[in-house]
Amino acid sequence: MGKRSKAVKAKVEKRFYEVGEAMTLVKECAAAKFDETVDVAMRLGVNPRYSDQMVRGSVVMPGGTGKTVRVLVFAQGEKVKEAEAAGADYVGGADLTEKILSGWMEFDTVVATPDMMGQVGRLGKVLGPRGMMPSPKTGTVTFDLSRALQEIRAGKVDYKVEKAGIVHAPLGKVSFQPGQLSQNFMALLESIVKAKPATAKGRYIQSVTISSTMGPAIKLDPVVIGKLLG
What we know:
Strand content: 15-25%
Number of helices: 9
Largest sheet: 4 strands, antiparallel
Strand order of the largest sheet: 7-1-8-9
Shape: globular
Helix content: 25-40%
Distance between the termini: 42 Å
Number of strands: 9
């Protein structure tokens, strides 16, 4: 470990931090030469192996994400023009399916109209593992393409609990103000709490960790976090 890494790691005490305090510290610990992404890892008291304990949803970050997103839309007929007018980077049908199956992945998120899901279904093994499969739950399967793309451009983040019961999501960039990052965290927290399965027992939020791309982990008190929304 280099001197800089040791100095950065030494800034983080072995204790729980408050939200605002953590966002200030994560900025101080970012030493990379690029604008690092600030991420949160939230362990939930669910077992995603059971379908009735799956936690999945989306939230529009009030402070934005600081990321330029390339949007691919599966549509046909008049919906092609709507997608193009709304700013989609790529629009198509079977042509795009074949291109993706051949290995092309020059996009970040996928939206589809319901009548195109038969076509998109062929891409399940490609898009699924990458978290890109369109879903009605995240608003990415819809005929209202204008709204879907507007939300994505405004900073929409999709999340899904992983096998270990952890939700990973970006909160923005280290160039953001601490208040911006805190605002985004609270929006995400509210969405995840609303998505709590009725079958989840015990403490729902078990651990919360904030970190930048190259920075150390900063822990928040899960009990305090669980009470923030009242």
